[in-house]
Each structure stands twice: as C-alpha cells, then as structure tokens.
Amino acid sequence: MRLFIKLFFCGLLFSFFAPAQALAEKTVSFEAYSGFAYNAPTQLTVTEKGKEDVTLMADWETESFQDALYYGLRVGLWEGKKGWEIEFMHHKIKLTNAPEEIDSLEISHGYNLLTVNRAWELEVGYVHLGLGFVFTHPDLRLRGKERDHGKNGVIPSLNIAGPTMQASIGRRYKMSDTVYGFLEGKITTTYATIEYDDGEIQAPNIALHLVFGLGFDYFTGE
C-alpha cells in the first residue's frame, strides 16, 4: 500500500511537468482521497458460544483523521466517457453506544471496501457504481475479555466479511492538462459477518461519504 501511494505522488509530480498531450481515446486514471462519513444506525448482533446474544441498534462514528486514516485509492481504465475501475476504501467504524456486555468495538484498522466499478462521464459529473467485498480488522472487548479474530481471513488479521456496493457522483477540477482535484459524494451499503474465537459479529453498515482528493490521467493512445 505504501508503494502504491509513493507511485501515485511520483506520477502526480511528473504530470505537472510533463508536456501536454492530445486527448486520447484510452486513459488510465489514478486517484487518492480522504474525507468524512456519516454512518446510519444499523442493527448490530454479537453472538458468543454459551451466552445470550447481544443485539442493539448501533450508532457508529468514523473519526476520519484520528488513529488510522480514512482514505481511498482508485485506478480506472477509460475509453472515451466510459470506464472500469478498481477502488479500495479504508473505511472505519467505532461503536459509540455500547451496552454493558460490550466493553468496546472498533473496526478502525479496516472496514475495508474493495470494489470493481463501472463509471461514466456525464453532464452532471462522474458517476460510479460498484460491487465488491468488505475486509475487516475488528478490535472487540466483550464481557471483560479481548477477543481474537481472523478465522475466515486469507490475509493475516483481515476477515473477508461479506458483500458491499456503492454509488457515487463527483466533479473534477482541472489543475493542469493531466492533474485534477475532485469532490465526490458517495453512498455505501455493506453487510459484514465477522468471526472471532467464540462467536461472530454481524455489523452491517450504511454510510454517506463526502470525499476530496487528487488524480492524474495517463494517456495511453488510441
């Protein structure tokens, strides 16, 4: 991930000084962003072997710029005004109305959304629709005990927890022939089932995001 970010900013710097190119039919776009998220209340269920389930209407916060940063990365291949994209969003959620059984629950080191998007450049702006999966890294302290997780993770300490989908619309603001800033509104809907040593957490999320970032285009030719 750090390598991707370094390459992104190297490409961004190069784009400022590279000679302008005629608009080509095929374009590769690279984008990075941060921003804010509002998380709608959703039903949270925590099950533990031999114990009564804990169920509540959960309130969540994102705390974008505290501890692990809330951010996203996106790569797109465009032909004219249509494109395919791969997007990674490092979303974060923290439970703020925990009952007495749950000492703390944070998914702040990653409620990570990985999607494949179809995108269009329209008169209203850039529209993106995506489907994919959520990968989670929860920190759960339940009934006075830290809980281990990662049973169904193919990456150490990350769970493949369920499906996600997103829709967004945004505008680009040109800074040079190839570099642009952008502002985007996004909605994500995710259903996550996270296993831990003695049970599982069902933690769906519906969120509205306002993100801002930088991007650059690489023209590949006709």
TrEMBL record:
Record-given protein name: Outer membrane protein beta-barrel domain-containing protein
